């Protein structure tokens, strides 16, 4: 009979030094057999929703965290029962039988500090190398002690401690009949309801007393759903506070995930880079006519062409003559970094908040390739599947506020970029053409730029070039 052992998978750093992620859903359950790299969970980082692959092939022994909980990088999230192939790393005791981890006590489990590479911790007797970080799929996990387990903060246990002098009881408490219980005995026997920090915060936000909430999680753990269900119950137990779902005039939502990251980034950008915004209204009738012709061209059959497609190409062309807008201010090294490539960011509104994924090397793409890239980028963003790598490394961005019927705005720079262009709605409006009034299709362009990197003249020339291309697409021939 093949011996087995328990291996823990700790939450990895999913990119750019992220410190925590929220478990959105589990794709597996205890007892399921999984293969290497099989998707086992969906987690939300501060930037995106990511599918988490399994670093092991084996049987799911225990899920350490419930959906809706925010977990620090390096904390165990799932344990696997895997075959013991007689690894030479040592320090790991095989687990007999095929029972799941939940059936054995902590002392009976294999003492292994596992990683994606299957590296074990130091020997359980405490002799060996000092605590170190074991590698995970990406980044590093928690510090592993000699037992091979991640360091956890011990629960407070009060034993034989001189009790402090209790405060004087209130008149109501003094009048309440009941058995006399010493303060010391109360400290020793009472324990706060089992829950995670995010769940406790949610309870505070909703005005829910956790002591009144029955826990449905493992070992009576109070989950996020327990708090929400209790909050929404029309007839809560006596003494329960009124929740947000029971007629209060405001609703509180925890700030986390993409929205938390976006807010921090926008505040940093607004108070670090000196923003300047310029506006230009352009007659884009010729561009709209070109768009109609391209849609009827067989060479573009099956491609999604929109005003954003043409405007994105125009931005890329205008950058050739105005490279200062494709740069970054490096405060640490006191340098201006000029990019010789364009990673074009496209602001996308998603159910989880604003994200700005970017198209790598967009300046090298043809119009058809750019159309495909834009379609894939927006579709992925709307489903929340944008990867962290697609959200980093942008050099200049576009936000298409015109789709909401807005004409102009003052967009905030994406951190690390020198400029952002806002595209307004295309509207029919009276316009002077050859000294005569005519009805034309017009669009307002808004350009915000970092005045440390871009002078007023440079920003104005870029905006004028962009407007010239959209007013007369043939002007591209003079810029390439």
Task: Write up this protein.
With 480 residues, the protein is of the alpha+beta class. Helices cover 22% and strands 23% of the residues. It has three domains: 4-144, OB fold (Dihydrolipoamide Acetyltransferase, E2P), CATH 2.40.50.100; 194-236 and 244-254, E3-binding domain (Dihydrolipoamide Transferase, Irregular); 258-478, Chloramphenicol acetyltransferase-like domain (Chloramphenicol Acetyltransferase, 2-Layer Sandwich). It has nine helices and 21 strands. Strands 11, 14, 17, 18, 19, 20 and 21 form a seven-stranded mixed beta sheet that branches. Strands 1-8-6-3 form a four-stranded antiparallel beta sheet, with no helix packed on it.
Task: Determine and state the CATH class of the largest domain.
Answer: Alpha Beta
Given the helix and strand composition, which structural class is it?
Answer: alpha+beta
Domain unit count: 3
Rg, Å, rounded: 30 Å
The ordered H/E elements are EEEEEEEEEEHHHHHEHHEEEEEEHEEEEH
Chain-averaged pLDDT: 76
